[in-house]
Amino acid sequence: MTDEYPAYLDELEIGEERSVRKRIGELRAEIDALAKSLEGARKAKRILYVGGDDLRGEVVRFLAEDLGLKVRPAGDDPGGLWLQGEDGQDWCLVEVAESETGNATKEQLAGTMLRRARSGGTEGGPALLVVNTYRSGRTIEDRDQPVGSDVVRRAAEDNVLVTRTVDLVRLGLRAAQGFPGGDQLTEALRGGGGWLEVDASLTATAHRAPAGSTLLAS
Length: 218
What we know:
By secondary structure, the protein is an alpha/beta fold. It has two domains: 7-43; 49-215, no CATH class. 42% of the residues lie in helices and 18% in strands. It is built from seven helices and eight strands.
């Protein structure tokens, strides 16, 4: 004979037993929903800590799922990515880079320009450089450092738009709240090179040194 509680005794309800069981079921459902929401938030932030091929894969997923953009790997160019328009045509090269202890660099810009030249795309056409900056940083403050003015100036001259992974995550937050996200990235790319910054208040600004900065429409 076992001392475990027999399930059939639940048929004999005492006091508020039925409402308690119902409430427990509701709380479990709520916990499951919250756990899924937390899992989704952490998934969106993978782009901030992975590197190498995993980072490239996360950039593809983020651009497509979080920002609603069409992106494809360049089959004949390992590591190369393209944004596509509604007509399915490639229109913007995407380069992915990382920096363990620093910011976006001119060397990364040069690599983007070289890939663009080798791709056979339009000379001087738009390019997006996504950099996972200060990857080894231990706080958001450590990692949320502005792109250097010399890099922004060079990017503007070469029609390369630089954005940090933290900028992309914040752009995704804007999109999740019903504000422009992918559209703002497209607008910034079509406006020329520089740095697309999204600050802690989720304000998006396209820095076009030496021409100045442009606050993008909300």
